[in-house]
């Protein structure tokens, strides 16, 4: 249906190097009062892959991410992360064990500058205690500088040098999304959860964003779980796609398989692509 | 010379992370220190010291403490005077009961006691937020002052509950003259302000601000809410505690628990809001505003020889109106106003 | 369209300049017109000033410490830059703000009802208006009793659009209506736009990043960069412009390129050069 | 046992008086998400204006009350125009601070207009024990308190009706959530605020008259706000019924605590006990008993 | 020639009513003295500064005003908090401070507090006098045995101040002392009065301040507690405390250190000062009210001290603070002098010395008749001064030890 997709003649993403299953979600169910956000969902994520989650609005995609990094605790099911099964994550452990994410409704720290926002991403890697930091001297300062160097790499990578010292509240939406990605990247995560990173961007900006995501995936081998409504993007860059509808999984497979599934067409795409 | 950063290149991250990145600012700060430490003691009158500068510095310190908690960590509190009281009464007892203890150490210990109380009363902040928390911190205010009046041991069994701060002696030097007390206060306050500045520009500070701006997101990043909030309470109370001790030792001399009443808590809150929530400089500007403006209005009213009963009420009204006026002009406080002025100056003579 | 522009435009923005916070100059002289019954798209990259333009029109800027320092805005033949937003809604000009802005503590239905605040409706009339919105967005009917704060991003977006329809405006300023919506819904929303436009003669000014769709439904388009209008024209003309194609539609000479193949070094737009 | 009931009833009735003041806060919090620091000053201002009209111009209370009401409406309009309108969409804390400035201003204005003297207000309701109860059960219940409780009940019912049955009620909640969006959907923020501040002025007048009749019209009326705060946090900032229920709970438990726990710890615990109690409640329900749940979602 | 007095007044805030009355009285009397030609030709000048009853602002005012116009000759802050705040400073600045009926009771010891003068009476003497009065009322001190007295007090340093005296006397006379504190500000006292009703005491000592007083009187009425059994302190005994309580206050008695009534000096103030348009009170009917009369009393004693100092150091000269201090320490305003001033029996005769900066310790009991205060007894009541002397010696010695002060009399200024 979408004009863009109709014009495409692009070959599907070729199978790429992906590794072991790093995250395995088993029969996850989550409900809020009467609302069943997720029902009995199972899927896995392999190392180094780009895994997309798609589905209509309110299908439970964001809730899924929230379950993965411990913001929500599923009523049923099990999360196996790096071979360790658990009932649910908690946010701190998730962050510690290398899960970072961005949010659908931007969750940046509005009162801080871009640099500071990204620096918070390195919080878990900072060792010196607050007394040393208060003195801002010796090891504390050295540590601060070392992390600053890392963060500058992220800033360079995302090409946001010019807004380094701007308070994020003043930035336009698209740049805020980029900063949020930067904050997640600064943590050097193993799994990166991205919730609609390209919403509200025009094509050019989406192209940039895709490039960042692909580069992260290529260069650092970061596993990526991605929610996105732009089918062009999803079909082009993801390795495997899960489709949710009304809290249920209706399809799971390569972009091509998903694209041709009748269920998916009915529930989400509207028209065959 | 224009106020401008052009031509000032930073060649290291350390240079870029300085407190004042622009050379003119650094020179300005240096000059300010020079004035505060050298020129003021030479020129100021005892009145300026003991009625304006010393209370201004002490209030700045308390405001700084509250600003750490409210401005940086986002936990609105109406109990700062209580922490000041703890600091003062604890220091008093340390000096009283441990003969020969250095006064500065007593201040630090007093601050630590305040920090402990702060942690205890900070616990609810893990669940309670915003104005609910603010109202709940009033519990601290009333409870602590109540304890001070109820536990005679704390006031050394003085029949009226009033304590008389001991003489400040450091290395045998007695701080008696207003100028010497001023210098001592100034030294303590500047050192603590520097520490505070360092904290807020390094990881602790960023964690506080993250919790303030969006606690859920902060958690996801791996910031531990409990630790961060309680640390903010502790540090903030420490600052307030030391300020409280100075209030007793370097300013009033003799105090009753009532001196640390709700009114004082509110005044400190006013300071940070007027000065700028989440700004070290703002704490100082706010304290100056709240301390100086009534004095100024009082002087003006009497210079105009208004009838006294009218003058006092008019003062109150003008004070209220000015608060509103400043908020309308700049909701982020005097510190932000200052910043805007600097930004304009940097562009000057171009408008944008 | 051309004959419509001859008569005085329904909405016209004349050379406005906007400054935030007394120092940040954002719009540097923007002029645009929306004819009665027209659909006009406002496009441009992140931070170009689209949202600012819309807020300047609906006088919502004041709440964000922004100021229109030059120029004027005319609506239906009268200057409106000194009116309150509420007066504008009463005159039929309504805005859907970027980033949803639903009333989090109100239920979806209550949210919709507040949208009809300016209208004096009987209970019946209110119910009819509600039904109309529910007809457009069936998903909202399902979630009508949930607090808006707990609904998904897309549901909130629908709620925000539905809410402004409740006021039965004659002109709607839509800020990024497609953001965060499933492709199917995006298409539906634009159908609704077309529907209202043709059946009820509602005029639209849309700020939109999804240029492909926007140009498909709009009659006329403006492209904003850096606070200036850099290009304007009939939608069809814009859609066939080479630059627009490359930067906003993501198709260049050789047809659509896969997001995967975006090169690091590629042509960047330089409108101002 | 008799004594227990006496304390309990006394506490409940005091609680109603607290609730009366808390109501004013609730109104404004509902309408703008702002904690109105000036509420106490408004209570003082209203009472002082009313009583001064009676004393200076020799008018009867029946005239003075409507005149004062008109003054309070004017005050409400002025506050909306001068203070609130320029501060639309600003952070809560800014608005909170503005109300602090307002409190100073109103206090100064009241005393400048009417002087600092303590004045007496006689509503014609005698503050004596109800004979019948005293004789039959030997329980002391003040006639005045019962009367005040009735007035308060009527007021609460009226306000609750006003907020649940009119569209203004819904609009208010919308405004409290998001000023900007409220403006965008065409809610006339200015009218709403003017109305709400006027109603809050009316509530302040009622509270000021009742408290003034009890304690004398004097500056310390501004402090009764401190008694209203724990009521407010317990009941929830946004709930009219919450104010009354919170008032009853706080009133009763505070009196019982003072009488039964107080002597063990040296007494005078009424100052902090309600706050600690409210705090404990909050730990269980962080938004108060009837407050709107705080939505925290990402 | 001018003699300058800074006035740390408060005319806004919770205690404004008292502040306007008191400082109104002071200024009225100063004006009167000036109209009559000053003190041996030396005119009084003054400057006011609004303290809002706030210690910190009070200190600022003191510091600001103390060096004006050639230096302050004495201060009277009418606030315990401010008095504490400037306690050390007045000594260092050599400016005497008077604290009529409040502040540190032990400051009456001039050897330790050479610059502080709690003139006329202090809390301890008041408490002792209260017990004395209650004893006499019961028909002799021995009748107090077995009686029950409630001390209902403002839960602060102020309310706790008399406890040592009361406890001591309870032991001595064998009455039971029930202490009931009220959390400030005391807007609501239902539970306390229920407790009192339950305890059914013979007397209630009401040690209140501000709004607490009116509320106490009203709550007593509403709980059916007879107001005749309540005895207030002097900060609970002004028109501001009884007016709001209305009829409930009729018959209520309190301590005071002025005899209520009219005096020639007040008439003179009306006829000269107010007729000349220089009156300080907005409301003329407040002339002679409790706070106003206290202000006039404070002003009379100050003026007498200056006059006294002039007698020693040179008539018609401006006196320094040190010299005024001497004047205060050697004050003798006896009945004859009071008569001459048109203030006979308005306050007890005052005779100070280095050991006794209080100079009297006598108080009166007054009763509210529904419209005005009337004296209950003709005579001044004096409590057990030996006891209070003992307490103040102990307490001031402790202070001296804390502060490293060697107690000594200062004597005449150089
Ligand atoms: N905290 C919560 N409380 C109540 N209901 C919730 C909560 N979080 C999510 N829901 C509900 O669960 C369902 C799934 O929401 P979710 O945000 O996961 O959708 P989504 O797939 O991300 O949709 P979208 O594409 O619109 O963002 C929605 O109907 C939403 O209303
Ligand atoms: N409240 C504000 N204060 C300061 N600057 C602001 C504010 N709001 C927006 N700006 C600035 O104004 C410029 C234009 O912003 P605007 O939101 O209008 O862009 P936009 O075209 O809508 O972008 P997007 O597509 O990302 O929504 C941006 O550079 C932004 O940084
Ligand atoms: Mg989502
Ligand atoms: Mg935008």
Automatic annotation (TrEMBL), chain A:
Q: Which domain of life is it from?
A: Bacteria
Native organism = Noviherbaspirillum suwonense
Domain ABC transporter as annotated: residue spans: 23-271
The organism that produces this protein has a lineage beginning with: Bacteria, Pseudomonadati, Pseudomonadota, Betaproteobacteria, Burkholderiales
InterPro entries per UniProt: AAA+_ATPase, ABC_AA/LPS_Transport, ABC_transporter-like_ATP-bd, BCA_ABC_TP_C, P-loop_NTPase
Per UniProt, what is one GO molecular function of this protein? ATP binding
Q: Which UniProt keywords apply?
A: ATP-binding, Cell membrane, Membrane, Nucleotide-binding, Transport
Name of the protein this chain belongs to: Amino acid/amide ABC transporter ATP-binding protein 1, HAAT family
Q: Name one Pfam family in it.
A: ABC_tran
Does Cell membrane count among this protein's keywords?
yes
**Keyword flag Ribonucleoprotein:** no
Read off the SUPFAM superfamilies from this record: P-loop containing nucleoside triphosphate hydrolases
CDD domains linked to this entry: ABC_Mj1267_LivG_branched (cd03219)
TrEMBL record, chain B:
**Where is this protein chiefly located?**
membrane
Q: Which CDD domains match?
A: TM_PBP1_LivM_like (cd06581)
Q: Which InterPro entries match?
A: ABC_transp_permease, LivM-like
Where can this protein be found?
Cell membrane
UniProt keyword annotations, A-Z: Cell membrane, Membrane, Transmembrane, Transmembrane helix
Q: How does it sit in the membrane?
A: Multi-pass membrane protein
Domain of life the protein comes from: Bacteria
Transmembrane intervals? 27-44, 50-69, 76-95, 101-123, 130-151, 182-200, 230-252, 264-297, 309-329
Could you identify this protein by its name?
Amino acid/amide ABC transporter membrane protein 2, HAAT family
Provide the organism lineage as a comma list.
Answer: Bacteria, Pseudomonadati, Pseudomonadota, Betaproteobacteria, Burkholderiales
TrEMBL record, chain C:
Give the source lineage, highest ranks first: Bacteria, Pseudomonadati, Pseudomonadota, Betaproteobacteria, Burkholderiales
Does the entry feature the keyword Membrane, yes or no? yes
The molecular function terms of the Gene Ontology recorded here are:
ATP binding
Q: Which family does it belong to?
A: Belongs to the ABC transporter superfamily.
Family annotation (Pfam families): ABC_tran (PF00005)
Concerning SUPFAM superfamilies, the annotation shows: P-loop containing nucleoside triphosphate hydrolases
Question: InterPro entries per the record?
Answer: AAA+_ATPase, ABC_transporter-like_ATP-bd, BCAA_Transport_ATP-bd_LivF, P-loop_NTPase
| Gene3D superfamilies found in the cross-reference section | P-loop containing nucleotide triphosphate hydrolases (3.40.50.300)
The entry's keywords: Amino-acid transport, ATP-binding, Cell membrane, Membrane, Nucleotide-binding, Transport
The reply on keyword Transport is yes
Domain of life from the UniProt record? Bacteria
ABC transporter domain location is 11-251
> What PANTHER family does this protein's entry cite?
ABC TRANSPORTER SUBSTRATE-BINDING PROTEIN, HIGH-AFFINITY BRANCHED-CHAIN AMINO ACID TRANSPORT ATP-BINDING PROTEIN LIVF
> What protein name is recorded for this chain?
Amino acid/amide ABC transporter ATP-binding protein 2, HAAT family
Q: Which CDD domains match?
A: ABC_TM1139_LivF_branched
TrEMBL record, chain D:
Q: Which organism is it from?
A: Noviherbaspirillum suwonense
Which keywords label this protein?
Answer: Amino-acid transport, Cell membrane, Membrane, Transmembrane, Transmembrane helix, Transport
Where does this one sit in the cell? Cell membrane
Asked whether the UniProt record includes Cell membrane among its keywords, one would answer: yes
PANTHER family, alphabetized: ABC TRANSPORTER PERMEASE PROTEIN (PTHR11795:SF451), BRANCHED-CHAIN AMINO ACID TRANSPORT SYSTEM PERMEASE PROTEIN LIVH (PTHR11795)
Q: Which family does it belong to?
A: Belongs to the binding-protein-dependent transport system permease family. LivHM subfamily.
Q: What is the protein name given in its UniProt record? A: Amino acid/amide ABC transporter membrane protein 1, HAAT family
Question: What Pfam families would the database entry show?
Answer: BPD_transp_2
Report the principal subcellular site.
membrane
């Amino acid at each position: 249906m979408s004009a863009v997709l109709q014009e495409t003649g692009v070959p599907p993403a070729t199978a790429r190097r992906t590794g072991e299953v790093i995250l395995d979600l088993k029969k996850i169910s989550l409900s809020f009062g009467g609302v069943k956000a997720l029902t009995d969902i199972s899927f896995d994520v392999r190392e180094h892959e780009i895994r997309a989650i798609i589905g209509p609005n309110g299908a439970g995609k964001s809730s899924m991410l929230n379950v993965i990094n411990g913001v929500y605790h599923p009523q049923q099911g099990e999360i196996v992360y790096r071979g360790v099964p658990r009932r649910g994550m908690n946010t701190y452990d998730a962050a510690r064990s290398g899960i970072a994410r961005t949010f659908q409704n931007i969750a940046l720290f509005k009162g801080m500058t871009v640099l500071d926002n990204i620096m918070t991403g390195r919080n878990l890697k900072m060792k010196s205690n607050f007394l040393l930091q208060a003195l801002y001297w010796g090891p504390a300062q050295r540590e601060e500088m070392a992390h600053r160097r890392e963060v500058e790499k992220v800033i360079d990578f995302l090409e946001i040098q010019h807004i380094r010292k701007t308070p994020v509240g003043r930035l336009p939406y698209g740049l805020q999304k980029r900063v949020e990605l930067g904050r997640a990247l600064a943590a050097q995560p193993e799994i990166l959860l991205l919730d609609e990173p390209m919403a509200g961007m025009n094509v050019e900006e989406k192209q940039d964003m895709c490039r960042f995501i692909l580069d992260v995936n290529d260069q650092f081998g970061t596993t990526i779980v991605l929610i996105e409504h732009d089918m062009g993007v999803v079909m082009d860059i993801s390795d495997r796609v899960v489709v949710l509808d009304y809290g249920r999984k209706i399809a799971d497979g390569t972009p091509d398989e998903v694209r041709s599934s009748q269920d998916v067409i009915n529930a989400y795409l509207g028209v065959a692509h | 010379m224009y106020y401008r950063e052009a031509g000032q290149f930073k060649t290291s991250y350390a240079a870029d992370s300085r407190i004042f990145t622009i050379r003119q600012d650094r020179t300005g700060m240096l000059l300010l220190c020079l004035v505060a430490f050298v020129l003021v003691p030479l020129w100021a009158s005892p009145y300026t010291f003991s009625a304006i500068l010393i209370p201004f510095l002490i209030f700045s310190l308390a405001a700084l403490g509250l600003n750490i908690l409210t401005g940086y960590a986002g936990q609105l509190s109406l109990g700062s005077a209580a922490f000041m009281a703890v600091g003062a009464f604890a220091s008093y007892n340390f000096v009283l009961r441990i003969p020969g203890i250095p006064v500065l150490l007593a201040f630090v210990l007093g601050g630590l006691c305040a920090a402990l109380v702060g942690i205890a009363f900070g616990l609810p902040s893990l669940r309670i937020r915003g104005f609910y928390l603010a109202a709940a911190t009033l519990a601290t205010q009333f409870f602590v002052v109540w304890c001070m009046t109820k536990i005679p041991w704390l006031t050394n069994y003085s029949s009226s509950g009033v304590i008389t701060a001991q003489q400040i002696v450091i290395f045998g030097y007695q701080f008696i003259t207003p100028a010497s007390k001023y210098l001592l206060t100034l030294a303590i306050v500047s050192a603590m302000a520097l520490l505070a500045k360092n904290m807020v520009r390094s990881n602790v500070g960023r964690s506080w601000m993250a919790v303030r701006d969006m606690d859920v997101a902060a958690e996801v990043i791996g910031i531990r809410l409990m630790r961060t909030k309680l640390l903010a309470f502790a540090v903030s109370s420490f600052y307030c505690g030391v300020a409280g001790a100075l209030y007793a030792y370097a300013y009033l001399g003799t105090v009753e628990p009532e001196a640390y009443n709700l009114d004082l808590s509110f005044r400190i809150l006013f300071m940070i809001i007027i000065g700028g929530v989440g700004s070290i400089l703002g704490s100082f500007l706010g304290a100056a505003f709240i301390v100086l403006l009534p004095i100024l209005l009082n002087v003006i009213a009497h210079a105009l020889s208004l009838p006294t009963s009218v003058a006092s009420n008019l003062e109150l009204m003008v004070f209220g109106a000015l608060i509103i006026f400043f908020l309308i002009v700049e909701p982020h406080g005097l510190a932000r106003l200052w910043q805007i002025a600097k930004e304009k100056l940097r562009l000057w003579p171009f408008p944008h | 369209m051309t004959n419509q522009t001859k008569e005085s435009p329904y909405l016209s923005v004349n050379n406005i300049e906007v400054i935030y916070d007394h120092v940040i100059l954002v719009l540097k002289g923007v002029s645009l017109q929306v004819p009665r019954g027209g659909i006009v798209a406002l496009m441009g990259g992140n931070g170009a000033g689209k949202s600012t333009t819309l807020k300047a029109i609906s006088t919502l800027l004041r709440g964000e410490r922004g100021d229109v320092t030059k120029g004027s805005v005319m609506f239906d033949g009268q200057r409106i830059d000194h009116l309150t937003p509420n007066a504008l809604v009463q005159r039929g000009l309504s805005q859907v703000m970027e980033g949803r802005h639903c009333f989090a503590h109100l239920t979806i239905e209550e949210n919709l009802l507040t949208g009809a605040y300016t209208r004096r409706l009987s209970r019946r009339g209110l119910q009819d208006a509600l039904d109309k919105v529910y007809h457009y967005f069936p998903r909202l009917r399902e979630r009508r009793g949930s607090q808006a704060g707990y609904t998904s991003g897309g549901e909130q977006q629908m709620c925000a659009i539905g809410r402004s329809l409740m006021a039965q405006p004659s002109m709607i300023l839509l800020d990024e209506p497609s953001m965060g919506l499933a492709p199917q819904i995006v298409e539906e929303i634009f159908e609704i736009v077309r529907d209202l436009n043709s059946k009820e003669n509602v005029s639209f000014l849309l700020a939109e990043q999804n240029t492909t769709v926007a140009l498909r439904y709009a009659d006329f388009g403006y492209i904003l960069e850096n606070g200036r209008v850099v290009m304007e024209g009939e939608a069809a003309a814009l859609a066939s412009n080479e630059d627009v194609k490359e930067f906003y539609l993501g198709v260049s000479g050789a047809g659509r390129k896969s997001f995967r193949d975006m090169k690091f070094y590629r042509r960047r737009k330089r409108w101002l050069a | 046992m008799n004594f227990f009931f006496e304390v309990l009833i006394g506490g409940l009735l005091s609680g109603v008086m607290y609730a009366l003041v808390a109501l004013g806060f609730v109104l404004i919090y509902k309408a703008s998400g702002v904690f109105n620091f000036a509420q106490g000053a408004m209570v003082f201002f209203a009472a002082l204006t009313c009583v001064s009209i009676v004393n200076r111009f020799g008018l009867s209370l029946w005239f003075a009350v409507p005149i004062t009401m008109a003054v309070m409406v004017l005050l409400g309009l002025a506050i909306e125009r001068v203070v609130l309108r320029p501060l639309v969409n600003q952070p809560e804390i800014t608005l909170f601070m503005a109300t602090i400035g307002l409190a100073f201003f109103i206090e100064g204005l009241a005393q400048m207009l009417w002087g600092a003297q303590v004045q007496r207000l006689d509503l014609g309701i005698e503050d004596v024990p109800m004979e019948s109860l005293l004789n039959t059960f030997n329980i002391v219940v003040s006639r005045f308190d019962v009367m005040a409780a009735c007035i308060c009940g009527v007021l609460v019912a009226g306000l609750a009706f006003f907020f649940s049955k009119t569209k203004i009620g819904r609009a208010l909640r919308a405004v409290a959530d998001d000023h900007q969006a409220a403006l965008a959907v065409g809610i006339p923020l200015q009218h709403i605020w003017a109305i709400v501040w006027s109603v809050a002025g009316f509530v302040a007048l009622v509270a000021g008259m009742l408290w003034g009749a009890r304690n004398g019209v004097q500056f310390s009326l501004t402090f009764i706000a401190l008694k209203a705060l724990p009521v407010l946090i317990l009941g929830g900032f946004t709930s009219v019924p919450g104010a009354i229920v919170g008032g009853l709970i706080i009133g009763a438990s505070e009196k019982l605590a003072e009488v039964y726990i107080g002597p063990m710890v040296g007494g005078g615990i009424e100052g902090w006990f309600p706050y600690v109690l409210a705090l404990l409640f909050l730990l269980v329900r962080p938004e108060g008993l009837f407050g709107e749940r705080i939505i925290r979602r990402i | 020639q001018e003699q300058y007095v800074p006035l740390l007044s408060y005319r806004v805030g919770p205690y404004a009513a008292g502040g306007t009355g008191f400082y109104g009285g002071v200024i009225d009397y100063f004006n009167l003295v000036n109209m009559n030609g000053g003190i041996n030709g030396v005119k009084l000048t003054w400057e006011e500064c609004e303290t809002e009853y706030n210690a910190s602002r009070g200190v600022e005012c003191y510091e600001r005003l103390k060096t004006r116009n050639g230096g302050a000759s004495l201060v009277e802050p009418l606030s315990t908090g401010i008095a504490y705040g400037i306690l050390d400073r007045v000594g260092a600045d050599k400016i005497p401070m008077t604290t009529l009926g409040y502040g540190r009771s032990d400051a009456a010891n001039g050897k330790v507090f050479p610059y502080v003068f709690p003139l006329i009476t202090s809390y301890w003497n008041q408490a002792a006098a209260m017990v004395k009065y209650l004893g006499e009322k019961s028909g002799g001190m021995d009748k107090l045995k077995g009686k029950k007295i409630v001390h209902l007090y403002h839960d602060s340093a102020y309310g706790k101040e008399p406890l040592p005296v009361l406890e001591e006397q309870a032991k001595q006379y064998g009455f039971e002392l029930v202490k009931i504190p009220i959390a400030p500000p005391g807007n609501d006292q239902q539970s306390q009065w229920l407790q009192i009703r339950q305890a059914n005491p013979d007397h209630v000592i009401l040690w209140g301040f501000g709004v607490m007083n009116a509320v106490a009187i009203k709550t007593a009425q509403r709980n059916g507690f007879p107001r005749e059994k309540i005895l207030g302190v002097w900060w609970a005994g002004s028109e501001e405390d009884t007016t709001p309580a209305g009829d409930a206050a009729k018959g209520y008695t309190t301590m005071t250190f002025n005899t209520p009534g009219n005096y020639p000096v007040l008439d003179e103030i009306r006829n000269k000062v107010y007729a000349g348009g220089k009156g300080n009170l907005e409301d003329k009917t407040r002339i002679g009210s409790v706070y106003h009369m206290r202000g006039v009393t404070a002003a009379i004693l100050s003026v007498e001290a200056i006059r006294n100092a002039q007698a020693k150091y040179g008539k018609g000269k401006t006196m320094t603070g040190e010299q005024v201090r001497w004047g205060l320490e050697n004050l003798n305003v006896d009945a004859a002098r009071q008569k001459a001033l048109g203030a006979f029996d308005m306050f007890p005769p005052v005779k100070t010395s280095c050991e006794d900066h209080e100079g009297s310790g006598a108080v009166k009991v007054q009763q509210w008749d529904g419209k005005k205060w009337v004296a209950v007894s003709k005579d001044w009541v004096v409590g057990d001064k030996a006891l209070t002397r003992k307490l103040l010696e102990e307490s001031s010695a402790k202070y001296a030890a804390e502060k490293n002060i060697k107690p000594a009399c200062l004597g005449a200024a150089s």
